[in-house]
Amino acid sequence: MLDRKLDHGLLDVAVVGAGFSGLYLIHRLTRMSFTVRAFDSAGDVGGTWYWNRYPGARCDVESMQYSYSFDDELQQDWNWSERFATQPEILAYARHVAERFDLKRLVQFNTTVTRADFDEASQSWTLTTDKGETIRARFCVMATGCLSASRMPEIPGAETFEGEVYHTGAWPHDPVDFGGKTVGVIGTGSSAIQAIPELAKQAAHLTVFQRTPNFSVPARNASLTPDEIARWKKDYPALRKRAREETRSGTIYEFAVKSALEATPEEREAEYQRRWDKGGANFMHAYNDLVVNEQSNETAADFVRRKIKEIVKDPQTAELLTPTDYPIFTKRICVDTDYYATFNRPNVTLVDIRRDPIEAITRDGLVTRSAARYAFDALVYATGFDAMTGALLRVDIRGEGGASLRDKWRDGPRAYLGLMSAGFPNLFMVTGPGSPSVLSNVITSIEQHVEFITDCIDHMRNKGLARIDPDARAEELWVAHVGEAAAGTLLPQAASWYMGANIPGKPRIMMPYVGGVDRYRRICNEVAAKNYEGFVFA
Ligand code: NAP
Which UniProt keywords apply (predicted)? Predict the structure, then answer.
């Protein structure tokens, strides 16, 4: 850990966050001989994987792909044990990377950056931490993550609950014992869908409060065999290149080349069943138009709805669990292990809080609008994140003339390529709004952004340039392009966190770039090749 008494002086780069983005930034910048320090609220590296320790937490991107590709020896040496890695294994991997490349010495943990001010005269940033320290750096990189600002809903009486309270996104470090306890879970997103089957195995009784049902496909997780690992490792560089340059999501799936409507109903059924049996998000690539054509989409949605009916024994519960009012894949598809089947257990109850909303949390549980009362010993909030902008805007960022980023983004985030926002010179964002970020294998997107940012800073050093800021017009055009790309898909039809719809008062705007990792990468490469077109240097 960084020596507290060390005078940071004027750093080349200050990095906010020590998750997968922060670690790779430190690695690349130090190898380019820049002075760099990173700051993280957590006690260790890992970012979102440091905080999300709830039972059942694992990644829904296959582990052979959800990992860094920048160092071939690293990817050859590391062995994943399961098809979908658990949170502890991903955290162990982040720690391994930090140790292997000696990165931790440049991270100051347990330190929250609260403010960042740009100083015109020195063309540098001053960061202020919750410890009252200030750090000066020529560049500031926000490596704050897209799903790192966990969110508690504002429910009256929440503070009066006398039992145990947990949030999936800020889980305690020591295991929580739910044995013999009655437990309530609010939420049925990806986190809840992973946690519920595990909680149900432990709790005396589990009550799930569902507002919106979600589509989920089985993970079919299993141990990776030495053969499977060897197959990947043999071709790793080529496969990684393909994921980066030829896929929309930065992940290799079995991509289809035809529309669902070109297949007969029998063919479709067989294809959906085959993918359902294989498991994972590969299901959503059964046809090439499932996120753009409503009729095609409906064929996949209908398949999953019938599966829910087949699995869940009680017809009323099955109906409640069935999404009907938004197209499948317009919210992040959930990947589960026995989620729907868990509702067949005698100790699990599903409560529809869309029809009968939670009125208040009480001393021993909660009460709904119809005055139905539920009591439990522990309450688990699986209520998600202030996604994409939350962690960024928790820092009071002040750019040119003291202007605030929160003010600038009041009607929705505006950033050129999702990398920089005009008026905030020398401040980069990794996987910022307007980039593929959460619609991709995020590690692929992180690597691309880190490489773009560090190459750009290096370019500036070589040219003796002190300041970079996006051109306001280039930003405007990019934001319009992000909106148009989204409008060509079904994604805006769901009230999803992609759209900011999970946060009361948050502007409804499609935040990630839907155009694809492959296309986005080409655009960024062209921008860089044209002397960073759309950016203004001084
Ligand atoms: P989420 O998808 O936003 O789900 C939050 C849940 O809480 C929703 O069911 C939501 O209902 C409910 N909720 C929120 N506020 C509520 C309120 N005031 N009253 C009642 N219910 C409320 O969050 P998440 O499950 O943490 O997942 C977020 C994202 O993280 C995922 O989409 C995924 O990208 C990522 N993630 C990935 C994995 C993985 O890799 N396997 C695991 C976990 C998370 P409404 O839908 O009605 O708002």
Answer: FAD, Flavoprotein, Monooxygenase, NADP, Oxidoreductase
